[in-house]
């Protein structure tokens, strides 16, 4: 198996240092195993994605020496493929049409909350056939979540993580306007790109169990997952602008060298004994994702 990792930022702003660290870990893992490190721009949020942000992300990665091994993939260019897979799941009985309006879904969530239940979709259309009343009405495509049992992920950083299927609902994979949801598009893209290892922030860990529904329903092998802790400020709170979190190019403009930036990012949650300076070539030789700590790193 050829190891293939990917960094998949959303172009809604500058590439911050947390994203840069994720990109570096993906590149290191691929290089350690003689594989490829790829870049996918997840620009399906058309209202917030900008060409300027895309250009800034690519410029930031190039400055750090993290240029991907293949041309970047634009997620928005693959919407037809995302729809194709959703339609395939519908045809195989693994998904179904759901005709609720936005107001009906809101009322459903409110009723669940009042009943002290999770605000999950009720599954109203899961085992129903549409009739004349639904002819011509818009519908979403929802995947059938597994009933009973649980999903287990042996995470390369977090260890064994298990979620009961009672916590999952029949999520939408294709909206009524024909656009794919993020959780669906990511799975299709990872499969088609041959991604073997998904290395990302642990804020995505809960998404993993929903994404596994698509992998499993399509009969696709799941990639290995590694969810790394986020970077926190010195006070233990999630890193933000008030802590001095900066875009990568701000570091460049301050005169920081890319080698120094990479060294600082690598040592946030990973280290090799007491060694303080680890060049990119040496890091690629010794890096192991299993050595990344589970606790959030604090950046002073």
How does this structure look, described?
The protein is an alpha/beta fold. It has 2 domains: 4-71 and 229-299, 3-Layer(aba) Sandwich (Rossmann fold); 80-181, Glutamyl-tRNA Synthetase, domain 3 (Alpha-Beta Complex). It has helices at residues 17-32, 51-64, 79-91, 102-114, 182-192, 205-218, 248-253, 258-266, 280-286; strands spanning 4-7, 36-41, 73-74, 95-98, 140-143, 150-155, 159-164, 172-174, 197-201, 224-228, 231-233, 297-299. Strands 1-2-3 form a 3-stranded parallel beta sheet. Helix 1 crosses helix 9 (280-286), helix 3 (79-91) packs across helix 5 (182-192) and helix 5 packs across helix 6 (205-218). The longest helix has 16 residues, at 17-32. The relative contact order is 0.17. The model has no long low-confidence stretch (mean pLDDT 92).
TL;DR of this structure?
It contains nine helices and twelve strands. It has helices at residues 17-32, 51-64, 79-91, 102-114, 182-192, 205-218, 248-253, 258-266, 280-286; strands at residues 4-7, 36-41, 73-74, 95-98, 140-143, 150-155, 159-164, 172-174, 197-201, 224-228, 231-233, 297-299.
Topology at a glance:
Elements: E1 4-7, H1 17-32, E2 36-41, H2 51-64, E3 73-74, H3 79-91, E4 95-98, H4 102-114, E5 140-143, E6 150-155, E7 159-164, E8 172-174, H5 182-192, E9 197-201, H6 205-218, E10 224-228, E11 231-233, H7 248-253, H8 258-266, H9 280-286, E12 297-299
Parallel strand pairs: 1-2, 2-3, 9-10, 11-12
Antiparallel strand pairs: 4-5, 5-8, 6-7
